[in-house]
Task: inverse folding
C-alpha cells in the first residue's frame, strides 16, 4: 500500500511538471493577449466568413475568445451578444469541438501526437458541423433567452497589475492541474496494484475494439471523456510509459477525444444559454464514434496493403 501511494504520487508530480511546462507559459501569454488588440483584430479578420456558418459577424468574438481561452470565456462572450437560438446552438457546437486550442493542442503534442493533426481535426470538425447544422436546421429564429447574466469583470489598473494577474492565473492553472492529476495517478496506481485495472479494461474491451483500439487504451479514453484533454493527458502520458499503448491506438484515442472530451462538464455549462443540450451531446458522441471508426478502418487497410503486395509477389 505504501509503495502504491509513493509510486502514484511520484507519477503525479512528474506528469504535473511535464504538463505544467506547457500550461503555465501558454496561459500567461493568452492572459496578456486579452488586454491587447490582438483578439479583437483576429475577430475582425474572420468576421467576413461567419455567414458560411449561419452566424452574424459579431459571433466571431466568442469564437476567437473561446478558441484562445476556454469554453467559459466563450460563453461569457455569447452572453454579451443578442443572438438567435440557432446562432447560439451553432456556436455551442463549434466551441464544443474547438476550444482552448493552444493549451489542449500543445498538451496533445506533448503526449507525442502531431500538432497539425489535432488542429486540423478540431477546427475541421467545428467548421463542418456548423455548416451542416446551418443547412439542416431551419428553426431557432427566435432570440435566445439566457439563464443568467454574466458578471462584470474587474478591469486591471495598468500593465503591472495585468502581468501580476496573468502570472497568478497561470500559476493557479498548474495548481489545479496538480490537484487533479496527482490524486488521479495515486488512484490508478492502487487500481493497478490491486489488479482492478485489468478487470476494468476487460469491461471496456467491447467499446475500445469497436473504435479500432486495443484494451489497454481504456483508461486513456475514460480519463479524457470525464476530465478533458488537458488533465486527461496525464493519464495518457502514463499509459504510453507503463501500459505500452501503441502510437496508433494513442492517435485514435486522441482523435476520439478531440471530438468528445469532458462530456458532462462541457455539455452542462451550455444549459444557461437556453439551447437544447441533448442534441449537442448526441452530435459530439456520434461524430467522435463515426470519425474514429472510419480512421481506424482506413488505417487498417493501409497497414494490410503491403502484406497483400508481398503475398502477390510470392505467388
Result:
Amino acid at each position: 500500500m505504501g509503495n502504491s501511494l509513493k509510486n502514484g504520487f511520484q507519477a503525479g508530480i512528474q506528469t504535473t511538471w511535464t504538463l505544467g511546462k506547457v500550461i503555465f507559459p501558454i496561459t500567461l501569454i493568452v492572459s496578456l493577449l486579452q488586454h491587447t488588440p490582438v483578439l479583437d483584430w483576429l475577430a475582425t479578420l474572420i468576421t467576413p466568413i461567419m455567414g458560411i456558418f449561419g452566424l452574424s459577424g459579431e459571433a466571431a468574438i466568442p469564437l476567437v475568445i473561446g478558441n484562445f481561452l476556454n469554453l467559459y470565456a466563450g460563453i461569457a462572450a455569447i452572453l454579451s451578444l443578442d443572438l438567435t437560438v440557432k446562432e447560439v446552438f451553432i456556436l455551442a457546437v463549434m466551441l464544443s469541438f474547438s476550444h482552448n486550442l493552444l493549451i489542449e493542442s500543445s498538451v496533445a503534442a506533448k503526449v507525442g501526437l502531431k500538432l497539425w493533426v489535432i488542429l486540423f481535426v478540431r477546427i475541421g470538425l467545428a467548421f463542418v458541423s456548423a455548416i451542416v447544422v446551418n443547412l439542416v436546421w431551419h428553426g431557432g429564429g427566435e432570440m435566445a433567452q439566457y439563464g443568467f447574466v454574466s458578471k462584470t469583470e474587474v478591469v486591471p489598473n495598468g500593465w503591472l497589475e495585468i502581468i501580476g494577474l496573468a502570472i497568478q492565473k497561470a500559476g493557479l492553472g498548474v495548481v489545479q492541474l496538480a490537484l487533479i492529476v496527482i490524486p488521479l495517478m495515486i488512484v490508478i496506481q492502487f487500481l493497478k496494484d490491486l489488479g482492478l485495472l485489468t478487470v476494468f479494461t476487460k469491461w471496456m474491451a467491447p467499446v475500445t475494439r469497436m473504435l479500432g483500439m486495443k484494451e489497454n487504451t481504456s483508461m486513456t479514453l475514460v480519463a479524457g471523456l470525464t476530465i478533458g484533454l488537458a488533465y486527461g493527458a496525464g493519464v495518457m502520458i502514463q499509459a504510453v510509459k507503463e501500459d505500452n499503448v501503441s502510437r496508433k491506438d494513442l492517435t485514435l484515442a486522441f482523435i476520439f477525444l478531440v471530438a468528445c472530451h469532458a462530456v458532462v462538464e462541457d455539455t452542462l455549462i451550455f444549459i444557461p444559454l437556453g439551447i437544447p443540450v441533448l442534441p449537442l451531446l448526441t452530435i459530439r458522441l456520434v461524430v467522435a464514434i463515426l470519425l474514429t471508426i472510419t480512421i481506424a478502418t482506413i488505417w487498417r487497410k493501409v497497414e494490410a496493403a503491403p502484406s497483400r503486395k508481398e503475398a502477390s509477389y510470392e505467388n
The chain has a mean pLDDT of 84.
